[in-house]
Task: inverse folding
């Protein structure tokens, strides 16, 4: 099953590759949202009152139109909600899907014709797995909680503002902040206002949204509630490309400028540096008051393929086979990738000193790891110190122990899932 899902991920990633222009150069965005069927299991799951179906329906935000909370194309945003049961009835876990960003009229216009910009293209049912699973063998700490998968359709990590919409007939709606606010109000109205425990999580661009809105999430919930946040594969680095003349910071600058994102960013960060820098977690996570857990591969394939060595920076194809499969990297390339790992650890060093911070940084060539059972919690899941990601996150969330786990450099961890893009 694991190999089948990883092959499916490769096929989906190939379908989802798309280019967007950024200040005179091209960044290839691998849109990382995942729609896989959960495998049914026997045992403990059969003894509890699980939902009748593994599929969870799409709900369109009821008051969205009145509040102007719209996807890029003007359609209603959506989410999938599975009601909690038993001891989890008053606990809430929210997961924001990922999917990159758009930064220009052209890229946003393309995006609005996909599920990442319009609910008209979203699946009406999705399966919940990994951190969203209702199977205790797959999700031991959060299986019975109320769970919400938030669909991502604004293109700016739920931080865009309508003041920046173009008035030239493009019909693009930059309403990410309004979607976030309307969604929170709706979930509060259906029971989240009584939450005893709550957990805001997200993958990639969705994880960035989770940390951007983490303190706001805390403020909307009861004071007595335990509230924490998690960002999975979202610690994007402000690094030069391997060619040394291109920089991802320029891309983020266009996202911020195009979508009016600055007003949604941390004010302390904005007072110290430019707007685009404040989209990088390193620059604002130090100011977040709510406890945050970082799950991040030290060899994040999205960052390596799009920030460190995008196609445009390697015209001779020196990195082609290495980018496709880390096992094909030569010693010099592995040393450069180790340097990228060191940059990540350096960027995390200040965050690591926070008492309430949690970390799981493994040395795998993968991107998001919380959404799928095979990487979240299974007999073959990646481990550090014999702990899966699920066990580590649970230990941290429930204060069973401090969790700041950092793997040794590649290829030391035999439990890793390493993506192989040569198979498609």
Result:
């Amino acid at each position: 099953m694991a190999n089948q899902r990883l092959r499916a991920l490769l096929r989906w990633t190939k379908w989802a590759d798309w280019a967007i222009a950024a200040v005179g150069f091209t960044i290839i965005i691998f849109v990382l949202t995942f729609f896989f069927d959960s495998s049914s299991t026997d045992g403990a799951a059969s003894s509890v009152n699980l939902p009748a179906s593994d599929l969870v329906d799409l709900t369109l935000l009821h008051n969205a139109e009145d509040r102007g909370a719209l996807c890029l194309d003007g359609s209603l945003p959506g989410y999938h909600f599975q009601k909690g049961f038993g001891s989890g009835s008053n606990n809430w876990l929210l997961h924001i899907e990922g999917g990159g960003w758009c930064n220009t009229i052209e890229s946003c216009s393309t995006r609005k014709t996909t599920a990442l910009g319009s609910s008209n293209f979203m699946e009406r049912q999705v399966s919940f797995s990994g951190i969203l699973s209702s199977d205790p063998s797959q999700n031991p700490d959060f299986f019975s909680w109320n769970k919400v998968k938030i669909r991502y359709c604004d293109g700016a990590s739920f931080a865009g503002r309508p003041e920046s919409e173009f008035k030239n007939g493009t019909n693009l709606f930059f309403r990410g902040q309004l979607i976030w606010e309307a969604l929170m109000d709706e979930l509060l109205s259906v029971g989240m206002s009584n939450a005893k425990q709550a957990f805001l999580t997200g993958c990639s661009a969705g994880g960035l949204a989770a940390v951007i809105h983490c303190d706001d999430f805390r403020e909307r919930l009861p004071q007595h509630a335990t509230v924490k946040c998690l960002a999975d594969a979202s610690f994007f680095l402000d690094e030069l490309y391997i060619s040394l003349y291109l920089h991802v910071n320029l891309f983020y600058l266009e996202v911020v400028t195009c979508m009016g994102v600055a007003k949604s960013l941390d004010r302390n960060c904005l007072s110290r540096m430019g707007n685009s820098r404040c989209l990088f977690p390193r620059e604002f996570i130090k100011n977040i008051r709510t406890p945050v857990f970082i799950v991040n591969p030290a060899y994040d394939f999205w960052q390596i393929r799009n920030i460190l060595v995008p196609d445009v920076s390697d015209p001779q194809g020196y990195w082609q086979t290495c980018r496709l499969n880390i096992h094909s990297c030569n010693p010099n390339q592995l040393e450069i990738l180790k340097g990228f790992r060191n940059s990540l650890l350096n960027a995390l060093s200040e965050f690591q000193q926070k008492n309430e911070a949690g970390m799981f940084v493994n040395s795998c060539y993968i991107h998001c790891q919380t959404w799928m059972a095979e990487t979240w919690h299974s007999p073959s899941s990646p481990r550090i110190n014999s702990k899966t990601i699920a066990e580590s996150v649970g230990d941290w969330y429930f204060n069973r122990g401090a969790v700041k786990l950092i793997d040794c450099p590649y290829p030391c961890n035999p439990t890793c899932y390493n993506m192989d893009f040569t198979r498609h």
Observations:
- The CA atoms of residues 72 and 173 lie 5 Å apart.
- The first helix runs from residue 2 to 16.
- The mean pLDDT is 87.
